[in-house]
C-alpha cells in the first residue's frame, strides 16, 4: 500500500493536481498548499490506525492520498485494500481508518481539502512499530573444554531490538555490551549450562530464547573415603567423580579387577559408584582402587577396607595402615628402654 522511494514522494504535488481535476468542478482553485508540517502517528503492527482529518464545511471537496496514489476521492474508494475505510464520526470529519496495520503501510498520507479559494492539505506520517522477535538462535552444542565458542542470536523489530546475553547460573551473570554474537574464548566446565538471549524494544515485552552449551572434560574424583568394617557385616566403599560425559567406573582389589561376584557388587549411577561387600571376611580387607574413565581421560583413587581399631595414615600420595595394638606395642617398647 505504501511505496518507499524519494521519486514517489516527489510525485505528491502532481497527484494532488490530478485529483483536483478529477473532482467535480464548480469551486475555483487559487493555490495548492503541500508544504505543511507533518504530524506523526505511531501504531503497533496489527493494530488499527486512524488518521484524523476535519473540514469546516460539509460542501468542501476532500480526498486521501499516499505515495502510491489516491485512496479516497470524496466518498469514492480508489484503493483495493479491504483494510482501508473512511472513519466519519460527524459530517465535518473525513478521517482514514487502516485496520491490521503492517510495516508496508508506513509512510506519508495526505488529506486534501478543496475550499472556495485554495486547497488545504494535512500530511500525516504513519510510523509502524513491530514487537521484538528472535528469528535465529544457535542450536544446543557440545564442545570440549578449552574450545572457542560463538553463539548467535538475531532478532527483528521496529525500532531495532537491543540484544543482550545472560549465563543462567545462580548469579545470573549478564554479559557486557549489546551484541548478536557472543564469543567465549577457551571455555571452561564452569561456563557450561544455559545461555539466554533477550531481544527488547519499547513496543512490547522482550522475546527470550535459550541455548545450552555442554562442556566435555575428563573425570576428577571429588569424593572417596576408606571405611572400617566388622567381619560378618555389610560394607560399602563409595567413589564420586565429576566428568562430562558421565564416567564409567571400574574397581580393583590390589591389581585384580573386581566383577560383581562372590559377595561383591558394583553399583554405578551417574557420577557415583559404590562397591558393596555383602558379608565382610578377612579376605576382603585391604587396598581398593576406584577408576573413573571417559573419552577425555582417566583418573583413580585408593580406598581401604580395614578392621575396626586400625588407623589410616595419609602421607601425601601414599597411604599406610597401622594397627592400634602395633602402635601401642611400639610405644611400650620405647618406654621400657627409657
UniProtKB/TrEMBL annotation:
Top-level taxon in the UniProt lineage: Eukaryota
Q: Which GO terms describe its biological process?
A: cell adhesion
Which Pfam families has this protein been placed in? I-set, Ig_3
This chain belongs to the protein called Limbic system-associated membrane isoform X3
- Asked if the keyword Heme belongs to this entry, the reply reads no
Q: Which residues form the signal peptide?
A: 1-28
Annotated GO CC locations: plasma membrane; side of membrane
Bilayer topology reads: Lipid-anchor; GPI-anchor
Q: Where in the cell is it found?
A: Cell membrane
Amino acid at each position: 500500500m505504501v511505496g518507499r522511494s524519494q521519486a514517489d514522494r516527489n510525485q505528491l504535488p502532481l497527484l494532488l493536481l490530478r485529483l483536483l481535476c478529477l473532482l467535480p468542478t464548480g469551486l475555483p482553485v487559487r493555490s495548492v498548499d503541500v508544504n505543511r508540517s507533518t504530524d506523526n502517528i505511531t501504531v503497533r503492527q496489527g493494530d488499527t490506525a486512524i488518521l484524523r482529518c476535519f473540514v469546516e464545511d460539509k460542501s468542501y471537496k476532500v480526498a486521501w492520498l499516499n505515495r502510491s496514489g489516491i485512496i479516497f476521492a470524496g466518498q469514492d474508494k480508489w484503493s483495493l485494500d479491504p483494510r482501508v475505510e473512511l472513519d466519519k464520526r460527524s459530517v465535518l470529519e473525513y478521517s482514514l481508518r487502516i485496520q491490521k496495520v503492517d510495516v508496508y503501510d508506513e509512510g506519508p498520507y495526505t488529506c486534501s481539502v478543496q475550499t472556495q479559494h485554495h486547497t488545504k492539505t494535512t500530511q500525516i506520517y504513519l510510523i509502524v512499530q513491530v514487537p521484538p522477535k528472535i528469528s535465529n538462535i544457535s542450536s544446543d552444542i557440545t564442545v570440549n573444554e578449552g574450545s572457542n565458542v560463538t553463539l548467535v542470536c538475531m532478532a527483528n523489530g521496529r525500532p531495532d531490538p537491543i540484544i543482550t546475553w545472560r549465563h543462567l547460573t545462580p548469579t545470573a551473570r549478564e554479559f557486557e555490551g549489546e551484541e548478536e554474537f557472543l564469543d567465549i574464548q577457551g571455555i571452561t566446565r564452569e561456563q557450561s549450562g544455559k545461555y539466554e538471549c533477550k531481544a527488547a524494544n519499547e513496543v512490547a515485552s522482550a522475546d527470550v530464547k535459550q541455548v545450552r552449551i555442554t562442556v566435555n572434560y575428563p573425570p576428577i574424583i571429588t569424593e572417596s573415603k576408606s571405611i572400617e568394617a566388622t567381619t560378618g557385616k555389610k560394607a560399602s566403599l563409595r567413589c564420586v567423580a565429576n566428568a562430562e560425559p558421565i564416567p564409567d567406573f571400574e574397581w580393583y582389589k590390589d591389581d585384580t579387577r573386581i566383577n560383581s561376584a562372590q559377595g561383591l557388587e558394583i553399583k554405578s549411577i551417574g557420577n557415583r559408584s559404590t562397591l558393596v561387600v555383602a558379608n565382610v571376611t578377612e579376605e576382603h580387607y585391604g587396598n581398593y582402587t576406584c577408576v573413573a574413565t571417559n573419552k577425555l581421560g582417566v583418573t583413580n583413587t585408593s580406598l581401604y577396607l580395614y578392621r575396626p581399631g586400625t588407623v589410616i595414615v595419609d602421607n601425601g600420595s601414599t597411604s599406610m595402615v597401622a594397627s592400634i595394638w602395633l602402635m601401642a606395642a611400639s610405644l611400650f617398647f620405647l618406654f621400657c628402654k627409657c
